[in-house]
Amino acid sequence: MTSQAIKNGAKPVIKCSSVYKVFGENAKKLLAKSNGRVDAKIFKDAGCVVGVNNASFEVYEGEILVVMGLSGSGKSTLLRCISRLTDTTAGDIFIDGQDLLAMTSKQLIELRRSKMGMVFQNFGLLPHKTVLENIAFPLQIKGKSTDDSVKRALEMVKLVGLDGRENYFPRQLSGGQQQRVGIARSLAVEPDIWFLDEPFSALDPLIRKEMQDEFLRLQGVLNKTILFVTHDFNEALRLADRIAIMKDGVIEQLDTPANIVLRPATEYVRKFTEEVPREKVLKIESVMDPAVDASLLGPLQVSNGAIIYTVAEAILTEPKHVAVINTLGEVVGSIHSAKIISMLFGQGNATHDKV
Amino acid sequence: MKLLKNHPKYVHFIALLTVFFLLCLTVTPNETNILWRLPPLFAGLPGSINGFAEHLMYDWFPVEIYDPELEEYETSALVRELTRGFSRGVLFCIEFVREILLGGVKTIVVFTSWDFVGDNKWAVWPALPWTVVSGGVMLLGYALRGKALALLAGLATAYIAIFGQWEPAMETLSFVLIAAPVSCLLGLFLGAVAYKSKAAETILMPLLNVAQTMPHFSYLIPVMVFFGVGDHAGAIATIIFATPPMIRLTLLGLKRVSLEVIEAGAMNGCTNAQMMLKVLIPTARRDILIGTNQVIMQCLAMAVIASFIGAKGLGFNLLLALNQLRIGQALELGICIVLIAVVLDKLSLAWANKQTDYFADYRFVQRHKYGIFFLVFLVTCVMLSVLGKFIFAGGINYFHLIPHNQGITTELFWQSGVDWMVENWYRGLQTFNNWLIIDVLMPMKTAYLGMPVSATFVLVMGIGFIIGGLRSALIVGGLLLFIAFTEWWDRALITAYMTSFAVLVSALIGIVVGSLCAQNSFASKLILVVCDTLQTFPSFIYLIPVIMLFGVTDTSVLIAVIVYATIPAVRYTVEGLSSVPATLQDAGSMSGVNKLQRWVNIEMPLAFPHIMLGVNQTVVFALFMVIIGAMIGTDDLGQYILKALSDKNGIGNGLMLGLCVAFLGLAVDHLIRTWADQKKVALGMA
């Protein structure tokens, strides 16, 4: 979807251009002096901390961009720069072509009331308001009538599956339920852009998986442009259209999950990908042979977008080559069980790289 | 030697003491010797303050004001008219509430005229039957907490009514009902301003520190000069005194709102106003309501002191009774005040701790059940009181209002009890009294007065330097320098000796009692409840029993001070000892410590910073009480403040004296707090 968008020359919804965020008293001066080449150590000796170091990227409509990194990598700082909860030290950020940093506070408030929604790690719910009131809060801030707000809030309650709990207070809900309220609240104004700051990190592992499924289901229905921050690489692999891996404020690699797993750009990225079971991440199209010898094909056909492990068993039990078809039913490549075996148990990477 | 080497601070301290004693022995008492006493450079300051105040009130910025009664114009100073207008406004509000509770004609007069009321005898607002107020308070208690609170409220109001103190109690209540909301709103506003503006906070904080350590009396004098005498003046003084804790707690509450809630509010597109009103303040609700609780308690504490400038009510009557040595009546009045204090305290705390509940599901009757019940109750009681008019025709209508001092009274019982005690224990009490004054207090007083000022400064600044470095030494030195340059250095020394004696005894008792109680969880809880209750008593209440037993002497004041000041010492000791981490206690157990070893090696060192904060509070409480003790007749700063009250040109003296007391308190506060913070960091508990 993203590659399609890029090919069509679509304009990005979010565009960051050389964004820097440095904390400290002489941040701006030091940055101007450094002329684009920021050395974290020099800055540290001068008493400044580099949060974001020269981030440039774009997020296209309808895509999920996951920013992943460990603590201190700058991922939350980057998100807060783009949502302008923090001001950048240098650089430009464009939202739908508008210069975010040049906006007046009035324009910013208008933007937040209509185009943006954010979900927080520790939920950020107002403790003195019920579930319904929390969800209706942004609508009330906007100035909508109570009737309209309540109607819309009830729709959102149904959307996230909290029927029957509209009148509960946050203290009466579990973590997962509270985050559902957070999600519902962020979607109440029908934002185009959806920010999520480690939304599932505070939840138990089992609930986390449920919430990820829920998240994917919502995206399937709503199709928002999403910027998602996490420290969990597996979560990133599961949810992202593209992943940006950050370390010490620098974006080490920005690419699709498959490409990151197949071709890690740096040693740091490679460390993450080493533990990943390839067959659960890659799709058939990454390991298939584009050349098709019709005479060798058997009856089995697999989709090029299928995750390998879902069709591995079928391929392994088929003695002949297997045709790989795209969504239109056309044959775009072939694959053989030997390839699968070398992929699963072999030492090397797949020889046919394609995305 | 090694001991000294390892603890350099002890060496410094010993050196300091040596210098101190040298100075004491060598410098001779001589008025002109600068090392003995500093020249009173600030002696002229009170005069200038007086002059300034007079100028402000009588000369500055004259304006023409129309006087409706005399029907002519007169010139008056702007400040005077502003304050007069403000006073009138406040007085109207107080009288309005008072008349709702007690009935009267003044409010009707405001809207019509005296002639109207004179002609129409029926134009009198009737008093609210005491049953209605009692029932209302019970209902409030039940709604906020439950049956226990309702019962307490009911018993308290019944006591007040039956013992014939209803009228003065309602006068005091109307006073609180006006002063408290104003203080709360003002404090909320200023706290919000301090939260948003760092500059405002840096200016406000030291002002609040001084405001909270200045003695109550000092507030009365400028208020009297600018606003006159009467209920409104008492209310204004109370508002000034009660607002600082509200500001502090609002600021604290707002700072404690979690960052995520604020960010969520920002991301929802809140304007600044929406952020403050819809996100910050509601989330900080509990701390803000605790501030409200503090305001109410301060208002009641001021009730007696405000009577000095004409505020009517229980405080005024209590003062009268004390002066006439009618101990029995003083005791009853004291109980009334305490009951009101306890009930208001518990009600406001229940409000702070009450979680919001959702009501939209209920039907109309359920939702407004308390309001409906109250209305029904109101109608019933009014009918009862009308009925009572016929039943008790000619006498007192018990269903309506029992007039002042015509209820039951146990005064004679208490009086005879006091007389019996004084008769039988006279010898013993006198011996104790004499011993204390002659063998302990007098020598101490002479010792303090015999210190040359240079020695005092060396000692105090030296301690400041040892504890907190140059900065502390300068702060403490500066504060004391102010006092030294006034004419009241000797008076300050007397205040200091009384306070230090009281603090020593209080701290000792407090730590011992606290340590004993902390051994047992039931005892800990019990003693904390006792401390809580005792702390709701307005401070002067403690004077009643001691006057009973020791008459009007320094001893009575000191004993009252010790009793009052021991409370924080006990409480902080218990709290500190209880919060020693369980892991450490377990580690101690496994090392095989006995009770004493545990207390000495584990509990005391770790609880020490917290206990020091308790001692800090003890000092503040003691200082306050010592000043209040001036009411019984001591010859320290408090006595001079009291004199300034009745002095026409007393504003200058009153303010300066107040600042002296405040600076004494602040100096000690600074030293103790710095020391406690350092210990905390050393223990890794910062």
Which structural class should the secondary elements of chain B be placed in?
Answer: mainly alpha
> Given the structure, what is the number of helices of chain A?
15
Low-pLDDT regions of chain B: none
Distance between the termini of chain A: 12 Å
What does this structure look like?
The complex is a heterodimer of chains A (355) and B (686). Chain A is α/β, with parallel strands linked by helices. Chain A contains 15 helices and 13 strands. Chain A has helices at 2-7, 27-34, 40-45, 75-82, 105-114, 131-142, 146-160, 175-187, 205-222, 233-239, 257-262, 267-274, 284-287, 308-317, 337-345; strands at 14-23, 49-59, 64-68, 90-95, 98-99, 116-119, 193-197, 225-230, 242-247, 250-255, 297-303, 321-325, 331-335. In chain A, the strands form three sheets. Chain A has a six-stranded mixed beta sheet with strand order 6-7-8-3-9-10, with helices on both faces. Chain A has a four-stranded antiparallel beta sheet with strand order 2-1-4-5. In chain A, strands 11-12-13 form a three-stranded mixed beta sheet. In chain A, β4 (90-95) and β5 form a beta hairpin. The radius of gyration of chain A is 23 Å and the shape is globular. Chain B is mainly α. Chain B has a two-stranded antiparallel ribbon with strand order 1-2. In chain B, a hairpin with a 4-residue loop joins β1 (62-67) and β2. The longest helix of chain B has 39 residues, at 411-449. The A-B interface holds A 80, 83, 85, 109-114, 116-118, 120-130, 137-138, 141-142, 167-169, 171, 182, 185-186, 195 and B 258, 260-261, 263-264, 266-271, 274, 278-279, 282-283, 285, 355-356, 358, 360-361.
